[in-house]
Amino acid sequence: MKAQIKVLVFLATAIQLLFTTPMCLAEVDGSCTMCHKYPGLGRIEKAEGEQAKKTKRLFYINNKLFESTYHGKIRCKSCHTGVEKIPHTNAPAVDCATNCHIVDPSTNRSFSHKKIVDDYNNSVHGEAGSRIKDKSDLPVCKDCHNNKTYHDTVGKQTDSIHKVTVCKECHESEEFVQRFYEHIMYRTSKRRPSKDVVKLCSTCHADQELMKKAGLDAVVGFTYTFHAKAIKFGNEEVANCLNCHAPYDLGFSPHRITSRQEEHSPVSIENKIMTCRQSGCHVEAIDEFSLGSRVHPSPEKIRFLMSGEEPVPEENQVIKDPTFQTKVVGWIQLFYKVLITVVVGGLGLHRLLDMYASRRERRIRGH
Amino acid sequence: MNDTVNNKSQFIRLTRSQRIQHIILMISTTLLIITGFMLQADRWFISVLGNASEAVFWWRGFIHRVAGVVVTVICVYHLIYVVVSKEGRSWFLDMLPRVKDIVDAWQNIMYMLGFRKERPQMDRFFYLEKLEYWSVYFGMFVVIVTGTMMWTEYLWPKFYIDVAGAFHLGEATLAALAIIVGHIFSVHYNPHVYPMNRAFIDGMISEDLMKEEHRLWYEREMNKKENQQNGVDDNAK
């Protein structure tokens, strides 16, 4: 009996293979899940260059999960262009500016992230907008959009069914209504907690080596500001990086972020005050509020300035600082360091002496 | 101090008003130090708080501001107190620094090192007490001014706020450490009063301790008492 089952299983597998293998070998016809549905599908890649680190790449796609994401309506090959045969050699990397088959109802044209990609290219982080020499250091879409591969949020935000009943009066497809509603909900709500924004920007901007290469100072001073301290406690009211460098409320966008030296930057000397006065922030700030020193002068920088050393050679420096004001803060810190050492050290020494004296007193009394 | 009590072995060190002022100052300063230094807290502290961290942050700010107002009020009250009231004036005059304080400090250090046989005789307040008292004037001036500036941040250029912040943190660190090393040690770990100088609660100082630590004050008080008694006797005649 057991042997019979074994034979049956073998036969079933063989028949399955017989039918599927030729299809796999044929041109990829759009049925990607035929192979990619297998959880173990992946390979170990050896990266080129000095750090020959082996990385595991998994090519498994959970179709059910994928369909519930924002990109779930898009066919694989809309983004993975050039995948024509097996193995998928010479397929270019996914380009977020590709047109996909989804029709944008606002324009009736096929949807694409091209506008954002173009904006980004002209921004200070983009190849066209950046002034740094080595453009390969610049961040790309996925460096910031490093969210989980799947945003399994469809169905999570329509907690109350009543919210979408009004939509359903006209729109017949429940799936469409849910997807659309949640898309709007997701895009209009705050996407990342401030903590994560700071963490994300810091991956590059707090990297001393990388910033030095780009002719910038690493941002270490922010962590010493009140804003950063509040954010550390989970406060969402104070400004994180983007609230000043790309405030949506004032018509800026993280994709169009610019150097503070650009006239139209929200943190340029002229525009800074408007940024500080955003609703919910320092609304009544006086004109001089934003003048002068940097918002986050770094103690690192103060240390460099005090020691007379420049963190970045003058000619490579992209941003010039009002060094005097930065120094003043450093002098105050130095003043207190000395004062604390003298006063507290003196008091401690006095106390020790006193203990020494009273031990002597006791000894004399004891005799 | 003019009001000695009938019990011969006890003298009044701190009056009721002074004790209340001290308690208010003590509680509000402690709150200010705790809520203030929470801002310098490390990540682990915040992770301990977990989901409550945002609420803790709000309360931290609220308590810091309320305690700041209380401290300001008590400081202003004290300034009025030392001018207007009789005991306040006597306190203030006895607190004024004198040349004797420098001599006392020198002689006391020499004694502690073993180069002198006797401690110098101190008056009502000795040099460290005076130093602590006047440090509070200096420190409070700095933290109240800079704290008010940071509270009304929109009225100042950002640079002023940076300067204020540096002063506020520096002064707070100095004050906190000075209180721990200087004040708490001298009123708790002083072998004469260990485990605690109770004067801040009952206001009393024993005759023995007074003779030991404030000899000149003791003699002053005794003279005053004698004169008073003589006066009473004279009147009686």
Counting DSSP E segments of at least 2 residues, the number of strands of chain B comes to 2
Radius of gyration of chain B: 22 Å
Mean pLDDT of chain B comes to: 88
Q: How many beta strands in the DSSP annotation of chain A? A: 4
Largest sheet descriptor of chain B? 2 strands, antiparallel
Approximately how much helix is present in the residues of chain A? 40-55%
Spatial sequence of strands, sheet with the most strands of chain B: 1-2
Unreliable spans of chain A: 21-27
What would the keywords be for this entry?
heterodimer; A: mainly alpha; two-stranded antiparallel ribbon; B: 237 residues; 10 helices
Give a short synopsis of this structure:
With about 375 residues, chain A is mainly alpha-helical. Chain A contains 15 helices and four strands. In chain A, helix 14 packs across helix 15.
Could you explain the architecture of this structure?
The complex is a heterodimer of chains A (367) and B (237). Chain A is mainly α and 367 residues long. Chain A has a domain at 191-300. Chain A is built from 15 helices and 4 strands. Chain A has a two-stranded antiparallel sheet with strand order 1-2. A two-stranded antiparallel sheet of chain A has the order 3-4. In chain A, strand 3 and strand 4 (109-112) form a beta hairpin. Chain A is elongated. Residues 21-27 of chain A have low confidence and may be disordered. In chain B, helix 1 (16-37) packs antiparallel against helix 3 (53-84) and helix 9 packs across helix 10. The two termini of chain B are 27 Å apart. The longest helix of chain B is centred in the N-terminal third of the chain and has 32 residues, at 53-84. Chain B has helices at 16-37, 43-49, 53-84, 86-95, 99-113, 127-151, 158-188, 199-202, 207-213, 215-236, and strands at 10-12, 204-206. By secondary structure, chain B is an all-alpha fold. Chain B has a two-stranded antiparallel ribbon with strand order 1-2. The chains are: A mainly alpha (367), B mainly alpha (237). The A-B interface holds A 226, 229-230, 232-236, 282-286, 288-293, 295, 297, 325, 328-329, 332-333, 335-336, 339-340, 343-344, 347-348, 350-351, 353-358, 360 and B 39-41, 43, 46, 49, 53-54, 56-58, 60, 109, 111-114, 128, 135, 153-159, 162-163, 165-167, 169-171, 173-174, 177-178, 181-182, 185-186, 189-191.
